[in-house]
Design a protein that fits this description.
By secondary structure, the chain is α/β, with parallel strands linked by helices. It is built from 17 helices and ten strands. Strands 1-7-6-5-4-2-3 form a seven-stranded mixed beta sheet, with helices on both faces. A three-stranded antiparallel beta sheet has the order 8-10-9. The chain starts with a helix and ends in a 7-residue tail after the last helix.
């Protein structure tokens, strides 16, 4: 039931004494025509009923604090509560962006130190903390690439190469930046094939801007030919863009700068444990090597200019700063190594019941396929995902990357215990057995949730976004 359905006329919570301060002439501020003529039709409930209603709703929500969240590519890390407490310190919480710099020296120092730490971790020359999220960071980095070529008198360059396993935001950001996108097919091993890449670069000719790539890629595989890939792109006059979505697999071990990348973005809400935030705020800092550093927001006379109001999502920056300071260099490396270990253990545990199209070794995430299962039993990857909900687990990412049929993309992260991983593996293996014994039951999953199986197509095309 909604709060409107629970409303009862005349029912109230606490009502304070009338204010003895004269009311402001609101109409003079917002305009008389914008004032309500009748009171808002708000629900009428007691305080305890209101609290119970929203507490009950909160209990139905699933998050990393309530259970295992193996959403591949999203790196759903646990958010340490000490970081929340530190970000809520009065000096941080009450800082105002319009205050004079001398009143915000602590905040400015934190951001400057965070930039230096991100440079050290990523092997970059400089970072801008302005972008609001990963896709915003992608657009910012691509704008820096465009500005670089414009200064070189090569504004005609407009072709971006992107592997077919890339995140969907990559081609979208490139198109938004005004570039033409050309897909580069992956090799049989799931990696960028140097010969195929060289052909694509030669076909682009003098119009080549560069290559967008994440390493490890979205199949959970490390691009072992990365130095050759970098040589091909640089040799053709292009630049290398690093999508930092998968940095959690390699931080402290290697860096995008060491791989030859010229510009990159980070997702602080992934790699550095800041909350994903239910739609915001996020943070997608952009780093650049020597060639592109002058073009970053705030980078000097060649800067592309401001891409975000103020200096970015400061509260998110504080959380990431605290995470890095708490772990230190050795701790960051241990986090990556643990993430890779957890993923490989889980892949090895599941690869007998599900197809592992790219072998039984991976980095921080892996992609299984339910294609054979679907052909033999009619149970799809989506059925497995819905069945997991009935077993108390958030499903992995399904049907991405699209180059793997019936894909199940799983990322356990470093913070999950062996007991949690074993419980998840047991659930996945149990569902594989259910697919053989009683496939019809999986077609109707989930059955333990307030809302059952939805028509995903209808929900996407004709969403109902209000209750009345």
């Amino acid at each position: 039931m909604t709060v409107y359905e629970k409303s009862a006329a005349g029912r109230r919570g606490f009502i304070p004494e009338p204010c003895d301060v004269p009311a402001a002439a609101l109409g003079a501020i917002v305009g008389e025509e914008n004032l309500r003529k009748t009171p808002a039709a708000l629900p009428e409930m007691s305080e305890i009923d209101t609290v119970r209603h929203y507490t009950a709703l909160a209990k139905k929500n699933f998050g990393v604090d309530t259970g295992f969240y193996p959403l591949g590519s999203c790196t759903m890390k646990y958010n340490p509560k000490i970081n929340e407490q530190l970000a809520s310190l009065p000096g941080f919480l009450s800082a105002h962006p319009f205050a004079p710099d001398e009143m915000n020296r602590g905040c400015l120092r934190l951001m400057a130190e965070l930039e230096r730490m991100l440079c050290a971790i990523c092997g970059m020359e400089a970072f801008s903390l302005q972008p609001a999220a990963g896709a915003h960071g992608e657009l910012t980095g691509l704008m820096c690439m465009a500005a670089y070529f414009a200064k070189q008198g090569q504004s005609h360059r407009n072709v971006i190469l992107i592997p077919d396993s890339a995140h969907g935001t990559n081609p979208a950001s490139a198109a938004q930046a005004g570039f033409s996108v050309r897909a580069v097919p992956s090799g049989r091993d799931g990696l960028v094939d140097p010969a195929t890449l060289r052909e694509a670069a030669e076909a682009a000719g003098g119009a080549l801007v560069g290559l967008m790539l994440t390493n490890p890629n979205t199949l959970g595989l490390f691009e072992k030919n990365i130095m050759e890939v970098a040589g091909i792109i640089h040799g053709a006059g292009g630049l290398l863009y690093y999508d930092g979505a998968n940095l959690n697999a390699v931080m402290g071990v290697t860096s995008p700068g060491a791989m030859g990348f010229d510009v990159m973005h980070l997702n602080l809400h992934k790699t550095f444990s800041a909350p994903h935030g239910g739609g915001g705020p996020g943070a997608g800092p952009v780093g650049a090597g020597k060639l592109l550093a002058p073009f970053l927001p705030g980078g000097g006379q060649d800067s592309i200019g401001r891409v975000r109001a103020y200096r970015g999502s400061f509260g998110v920056l504080v959380r990431a700063y605290c995470y890095i300071r708490a772990l230190g260099a050795s701790g960051l490396r241990e986090a990556s190594e643990s993430a890779v270990l957890n993923a490989n253990w889980l892949l090895n545990r599941l690869s007998g019941a599900y197809d592992a199209p790219y072998g039984e070794r991976c980095m921080h995430e892996f992609v299984l396929s339910a294609a054979a299962m679907k052909e033999q039993t009619g149970v799809s990857a989506m059925d497995i995902a819905k069945g997991l909900i009935d077993k108390g687990f958030h499903p992995p990412t399904v049907y991405f990357p699209t180059i793997v049929p019936e894909s199940l993309m799983t990322e356990p992260t470093e913070t999950e215990s062996p007991e949690t991983l074993e419980a998840f593996a047991a659930a996945m293996l149990s569902l594989a057995e259910d697919a053989k014994r009683n496939p019809e039951a999986l077609h109707s999953a989930p059955v333990t949730t307030p809302v059952g199986r939805l028509d995903a197509t209808a929900a996407a095309r004709q969403p109902i976004i209000k209750s009345r």
